Amino acid sequence: MRIDVVGRQIEVTDAIRTHAEEKAGKLPTFYDGVQAVRVTLSREDHHTHGRFHAEVVADVQKHADFVSHATHEDLYAAIDEAAKKVSRQLTEFKERLKQSRH
After folding, report:
1. Do 65 and 87 form a contact (C-beta atoms < 8 A)?
2. Which of 7, 65, 92, 99 is the most exposed place for a label (fewest CB within 10 A)?
3. What is the chain's percent helix, strand, coil content, to nearest 5?
4. Domains of the chain
5. Which residues is 4 bridged to in the sheet?
6. What is the pLDDT along the chain (102 residues), one digit of tens a residue?
7. Between the CA atoms of 87, 90, 96 and 102, what dihedral angle is there, to the nearest 10 degrees?
């Protein structure tokens, strides 16, 4: 699985990249069809104390991409929240697949 971490108007350090890859790496446990994950990080306010925006896009086989957005004052919390939203979407999609087969 490919994981891309992209920063817009923000420098992606090794610690940020590791945290984002760790959270995105857990997504295949919710649904096996995840092919790639793209994490896009940006800062809404260009000053030192701005709010951070995280977007997580999960590319899944035979389905449209799952997209989630999160905004928080802490960049790590924004990444966590966006990853949690995508994991919920993947879990619900997997449950719908199971129910439609029965």
Report:
1. no
2. 99
3. 40, 30, 25
4. 2-75 (3.30.160.100)
5. 38
6. 899 999 998 899 999 999 999 999 999 988 888 999 999 999 877 666 778 999 999 999 888 999 999 999 999 999 999 999 999 999 999 998 888 766
7. -100
